[in-house]
Amino acid sequence: MADRSAPSCHLRLEWVYGYRGHQCRNNLYYTAAKEIVYFVAGVGVVYSPREHRQKFYLGHQDDIISLALHPERVLVATGQVGKEPYICVWDSYTVQTVSVLKDVHTHGIACLAFDLDGQRLVSVGLDSKNTVCVWDWRKGKLLSMAPGHTDRIFDISWDLYQPNKLVSCGVKHIKFWSLCGNSLTPKRGVFGKTGDLQTILCLACARDEVTYSGALNGDIYVWKGINLVRTIQGAHAAGIFSMNACEEGFATGGRDGCVRLWDLNFKPITVIDLRETDQGYKGLSVRSVCWRGDHILVGTQDSEIFEIVVHERNKPFLIMQGHCEGELWALAVHPTKPLAMTGSDDRSVRIWSLIDHALIARCNMEEPIRCAAVSTDGIHLALGMKDGSFTVLRVRDMTEVVHIKDRKEAIHELKYSPDGNFLAVGSNDSSVDIYGVVQRYKKVGECIGSLSFITHMDWSSDSKYLQTNDGNGKRLFYRMPSGKEVTNKEELKGIQWASWTCVSGLEVNGIWPKYSDINDINSVDANFIGQVMVTADDYGIVKLFRYPCLRKGAKFKKYLGHSAHVTNVRWSHDHQWVVSIGGADHSVFQWKFVPDRKLKDSLHIAPQESLVDSNSDESDSDQSDVPELDSEIEQETQITYRRQVYKEDLPQLKEQCKEKRKSAASKRRERAPGNSIRLHFVHGYRGYDCRSNLFYTQTGEIVYHVAAVGVVYNRQQNTQRFYLGHDDDILCLAIHPLKDYVATGQVGRDSSVHIWDTETIKPLSVLKGYHQYGVCAVDFSADGKRLASVGIDDNHTVVLWDWKKGEKLSAVRGSKDKIFVVKINPYMPDKLITVGIKHMKFWRRAGGGLIGRKGCIGALGRTDTMMCAVYGWTEEMTFSGTSTGDVCIWRDVFLIKTVKAHDGPVFSMHALEKGFVTGGKDGVVALWDDTFERCLKTYAIKRAALAPGSKGLLLEDNPSIRAISLGHGHILVGTKNGEILEVDKSGPITLLVQGHMEGEVWGLAAHPHLPICATVSDDKTLRIWDLSPSHCMLAVRKLKKGGRCCCFSPDGKALAVGLNDGSFLIVNADTLEDLVSFQHRKDVISEIRFSPGAGKYLAVASCDNFVDIYNVMSSKRVGICKGASSYITHMDWDVRGKLLQVNTGAKEQLFFEAPRGKKQTIPSLEVEKIGWASWTSVLGSCCEGIWPIIGEVTDVTASCLTSDSKVLATGDDFGFVKLFRYPAKGKFGKFKRYVAHSTHVTNVRWTYDDSLLVTVGGADTSLMLWTYEMEGHRDSRQCDSEESDLDSEEDGGYDSDVTRENEINYTIKALSTNIRPMFGIKPHLQQKEPTLDERQGVVRPPVSRALPQPEKLQTNNVGKKKRPIEDLILELVFGYRGKDCRNNVHYLNDGADVIYHTASIGILYNVATGSQSFYQEHNDDILCLTVNQHPKFTNIVATGQETQQICQLQLLLFMCGMQ
Fold first, then answer.
1. CA atoms within 13 A on the CB side of 820
2. What is the mean pLDDT of the chain?
């Protein structure tokens, strides 16, 4: 059976044994329902003592280390460790996530606390600064953050009696925080003489600014404000780990094993010493206490939870036990009873009842235990130790039978033979010893074939063979009991194994993920009857596979909960349960095995189960049993949108070229041309890798995108308007429900989403900062207030925005594979779906995160690649189109039906009021009723159906449909071939827009005397375009190969086309039929040119470094130009047709005589005098200025000179079209630049009368027409030109004061936040008084924060008593900061006061009295000041200071007159 699918049965977490007491504190509470909440490993546990039942919160994926209870005692916040740790706020009743707080902390979250009304949550990170963050947790929004302390913080709490005040404590400090606006400001507690400075472990706040804190030495420190006022000495004999405040008073727990209760004034009530009680033991240490009414909960270091009833305080009730700190590796199950045995590095062996969920026996050994086995009759329990010995105990009373030490290294594995006669003992020194059970464990054999430590062993059913695995991944077989190795494959064939716990072997091939280490999987156990097996691995995951699992990359179900490595896993004797143990989390998990659950049951899962299931993802290795991807989708998933250089890198690149800039700025450079161009029309539509990106606007215009341009097309007038706010490829577009705004997402290093108005073409909002590399899908909510976007980073991050505010609401990693579509639920804006490669996920917002559930397919098939999705007529109904042509119908997260809709992928889908419309790769548009029961009508996109008014020609029948939209009585269709069509409901089709298909466009030629141009592309088509106002494609011809260049003959009747296989054609310019074709080269033809005049010669340049010259009339090659060292890039003839100018990839400018092709050397001065028939070259002194400062990074790919030789247009690899004055002599000429193409502009040409500039973009496949506007013609529209790279520094420059201020650097002084360094020698160490000259010779830094050097003062101090230092009070400040600030003096209070600043002080000067009052909260120079003019906020002033980070202004608002 080589079934690679995941098993249909599953596991459900039933019980967790253990409690995290080590390295955590204050993590145990009563909820409002009198349940107990705590955590262990990566699981939040809610335990009901009444029902002896546990519920689990499984929203974390690593160790939980902190917990806080909401004041209403229903919600719980938990924080985890990890590289990108997050906080979950969850409901203890339903165990569902309410909010996720993420993207701020690193390393882990050490402490959490809710404020009094439960609206805000404070968290402390484990990063080097122990960052403190305050959250509005419901919104998932960070309100404030500040560095906490240089050392660990152990506890933090809100002052419940003063709003906006917090207290934190930790290693040798306590800090009192106030939250003002979004600024957290700490003041350190002053220990003074009242107590020693020491580590504070816990704290609790009381009335009247009193704070109680527990110290490392067992004292309680009492604080008033920030001062230590008294200590309660010896409250505990050792460190106080936990302090809990309740209505009755305070409870404290310490390392001495005592719990003390105190009244509200911290007077002692009683003490409970747990070490002295029945369950107590030496070394018991309390880590957590919770006092509620007459019950007290106590959590200990050794993973126990006690419940104490106050009036029976000597009889604490033990409600939970677990292993103590140390790795947990040993696990065995009883052969006939529901018992599990575990042994750990804490040296204890424990027996657990799987039915009662309780510990029923424990025994402490001398050595750490590493493995365990129970004999077949269930009488003996063998334990393998870390020191190489093993011990056998009687299960009945845990008495020792025998203790044997034959090895020096740890025993890794033990197994009793099925007949009960032998015990095999595998050790770390590569051998297996066989002992006779009946002979009182006498050694009877030894297996020594392994070269590495033994990891796993299994006996055959007849006890005659043993198989072993070792650390090298070798699988060996031995005959028993002698231990002789078996190598004969025939002998091994029929062996039946009694158990299967080995990790290597044919039967378990499929459990290994790709690229995994041989020691990644720690344990396996097969259930032969159920034909399933479980595995435990180093990533904290328990997986369920089919057994046997023969083929690599098998699918599985996975279960999270263990945080670190899962060391062992076993089925119970009757296969009802699976028991797994965690190494570092030393917890024992008991999972219930649920056999094949029927689909109908799954529709009614209890909320608890559904959550567990949501984490039991199907396999990671989804690629296994899936049909081949459709070629078109596969092609699309392989497109990379990453660039070597992004446009946003330009400023940095220019910065690196500073020296060049300076030298350029010092020289006089040619001005930019006065004339300009304006984008007029764009041919093209991005269909080959985008979908659903085409809509009708409110006014009936059509909005779509191509290259970096958002296009609004008026089909009546055949005109376009452009949104030019993007600077790289737009990949997605969505329209607002009111059809007046559009959102577009682009490629970029920090890519952005723009929301813009289709009427005014003005941006309304730009969203940045969360997507890397690009945004591939966007969608508006039904109310238009929210926007969802998906990135093309490795995790395909999904972000939900409040777009008007520009605020990120929630974010989550979407999928490892590409996501194609995101849709927000129209009925519930907190829910959304994403679809993509093997991906259909349903998300709901939880604070700053999104909780996702995969679609449940049940028995209806497998997860297909989904290409499109829409919501249906109710909030639960969703419809998705698959890559195989089906439409899937979903209710909630369950697939209920599939309908065959198209041949090949369904790329686009649109919901109507009463039905749906779909479009597929088969070129068919289908209309459906509202249940997808009936297909009402289909439209095939065919040439025969084209209406007479079409703007162009359909390239092929049934093109792949990528976008569909409805409105104004028509269906709008976008195709993969770059066409936009309008289908009338009655059938006729009008072609509105078209462009080249996928592939780079390089070839461009303008007709010599008509408004026509030709283009040729890698898409293997040659096209002729009408540039007059009808703007359409006049003719198209398919070629056998793609082409890179074309040229009209001087009379415009012939058109030469160079192809990528080294051949070229000459065709009739009207009919595009062949006149002649040649092939002399094997490499790409890169440029082709007719000689001027009669067009007698044709020069053909190729990428194999030659130019061939042909006589057009005789159709013969008459010359070859040799001597270029690289491929040819550009060519121009002189006016006489006797000389060729050639540019090469090695930036050579060469000259050849025509027609023979003899190489000529011409001095640069002479070149300028030659009359050229055209100028498309990019080299030479005439165009030195067109190369940018960052010329190493980017190439100028094309140029073209106007016929009056005044303006040179260029295109470059950055996607810029630029205009220069000609000749552009001298380096770095000034220019006007225009962005509309996304990546490289491959070619530019002026039309015959210079009225239009035509440009083509390489990969963006677009053809753009720009109108040429003479100087003085100023359009009122937004100007999309930017002037030169170099700002006009040299054009008149700055005033000297402005220059000085511009160059001030605010970062060189020692910052006052550090301890100020002193210069000079202490007075009593000085040799002599320095002279005036010497003092003047001292060079001090111009803006040092240091104090001046002390003068030497000699006074007679004998007999004078030292007076204590009084406080200094600022009385008067002379000075005002005017040298580099402006607008920083204002009247206040109707002219009675003046506000200004100097140094780090805000000064309020009373005009009448001449007195000053001061605002002194800044700690460095204030650089700016403004006064709030709003009548509601009188006398509010904002001041900004400089700090360590450049440009980071710390704004403080203060009320004047208050301070």
1. 32
2. 84
